[in-house]
């Protein structure tokens, strides 16, 4: 009898709850009954009111900062590539360019016993913008017979030019145009804050695209040259005119004069670096949303029309770590990209999954893994930096450090320290010198790349 009463009571509770549960609106909207149920999630308790008051005047990430994780992380590293000076991309999306130049800068300083030295980012940025303008205009010519609403044409018109990029831009531009020291072609206001210059060039290129599409096929290449002349003029006004040759005085790390000589930009690169950037590196990626062991290429995702598209081998994270460790142990920095804004304490310069507790603050569970975040556009590579250090304990990495391009005063002495757990979740791409790549990985690079469209979400430019 007792069990029967308990069962009857349970059924009554269940039936009551079921009866009170609002039916979904068959048209997909929010009915008044549904709204009543939904709004019950906020009860207006003293705790809720305190959170509302705090969020009214304080940033979410400030309130979510974990009190248990505020102490500065251990800054000792078992292996670190020695670099001199820190660079600052300021209000521009040129991280890929700063990172690529910082990688070869570290090598040049070591090889030639230099003091603080930087390459001119502005010099290569000039040619990057000119080459991207040509890439866009030629893309418009190549697709002139497609309707303007075609996805590829629409993508081109949506992305005529920009600051962002990746390592093939560095390699193609340097091998084509060389490099110069920063004092030969210094930064300008438009180089440091690119938005207004970009707006004007984008507007002109889009206008040019309409003219090219309307022109006869035989006229388009000549028209493109005239259009590029206008872009060159705009760039020269904003960034300066790239030098064809220059005189540079070399000093060693002690500040002692060594030599003075006149160089061309390509001659300067060959004398002080001389590396074949286009053929001496591979690019690897950790993207669990697509198959490992496959090579991927992104259409139109390059800086130079006659250069290379992005080509990446997708690998498990542990395989990428092995190559990164080998390179750092040999005192060689690497081009590295990640989703930098996630769980980053910018003041301390520490990227740690325990930095912020958004779950407790908001009262919800954020439970997606890396694959799910990629598939839903919640995460992807946003920023390139120079990987310079790893801390190994019993042969396993516990943390990493990158040289950033946000200035010497940012983060930890211009660097960002990342826990290994953070590295697993938000590291995406690495450029590795071939001598640090195992034979089995190199063999996988021989397969034909799988061509992906330009709008693939994992390949947005790094800025």
Structure overview:
Helix 5 crosses helix 8, helix 6 runs antiparallel to helix 11 (220-239) and helix 10 (195-214) runs antiparallel to helix 11. Strands 1, 4, 5, 6, 7, 8, 9, 10, 11, 12, 13 and 14 form a twelve-stranded mixed β-sheet that branches. 37% of the residues are buried. A hairpin with a 4-residue loop joins strand 8 and strand 9 (350-351). The protein has one domain (79-459): Cysteine proteinases (Cathepsin B, Chain A, Alpha-Beta Complex), CATH 3.90.70.10. The model is unreliable at 1-19 (pLDDT under 50). The chain has helices at 2-20, 32-39, 46-57, 60-64, 95-112, 121-142, 151-158, 167-177, 189-192, 195-214, 220-239, 265-272, 317-329, 358-362, 370-375, 420-426, 439-444; strands at 79-80, 246-251, 257-263, 281-285, 295-298, 310-314, 334-338, 344-345, 350-351, 383-393, 396-403, 415-419, 427-433, 450-452. It is globular, with a radius of gyration of 27 Å. The chain has 463 residues and is an alpha+beta fold.
Annotation keywords:
single chain, 463 residues, 12-stranded mixed beta sheet, two-stranded antiparallel sheet, 14 strands, 41% helix, disordered N terminus
